[in-house]
Amino acid sequence: MSVRGHVPGGGPQATDEPDLSTAGPMARSAADLRLMMRALSTFWVEPPRIPDFSRYQAKANYRVCTWFSAPHHEIDQQIAQRFQSFIDKLRAQPGVEVDDAMPADIDPDALFDIAVKLSGRLVSTALNGRQRLTAGLAALGFRLVGKLADVPEGITSYYQGMLKDSGEQRNTDKLRHEYSRVIENLFARYDVLLTPVSPVLAFAHMQQPVRKRKLIVNGEPQDYNEHLFLETC
């Protein structure tokens, strides 16, 4: 569902469709989806028309791109083994071609940086002047502390995105559109991108502040934002 329209906080011409904006999540489970569809259809004079999916025909051949890690961004071996087992089964299927690397023109770290800045920009639409000043001080503080100590990846960019700096926004939007074209080209070459959305298996919700949370990846503690890195990319 398109959410194209005026972007709060931008100029009069800021009508791009935000990459991180979505009409959802609509459902967490099949039961949620059934409940939602009942609610939507109950008040219609005529039931909504069911889309015709018959035009989507199975293909004779499929090209699959797999991507599991970037430098300094490991995934847990439990995840890797399950994906590798699935990939081995895919390779055995006739008509399936599998490539084991993300194309070189995609920089996952740059893509993650863009995503967290856009996320900060969306959050900032609800901030007042004092809160935005606090975000600016936080961005400066994390940038300075990051030279001496470990800080969550992307946290500085997240706060920078809240500042409504016009130059920063123009640069981020430029990179966003460039990466949109790169992703379009990726799916012109491949039918499916197979990648984990988290470096670890499901874990209990952590109550600590984000900067204090740690994930255990292959027995070693990693920043909690590693959970967001693969999900975002």
TrEMBL record:
Domain Amidase residue range list: 15-208
Pfam families assigned: Amidase
Species of provenance: Klebsiella pneumoniae
InterPro entries (alphabetical): Amidase_dom, AS_sf
Ranges where the record places region Disordered: 1-24
Record protein name field: Amidase
Source organism, top-level taxon: Bacteria
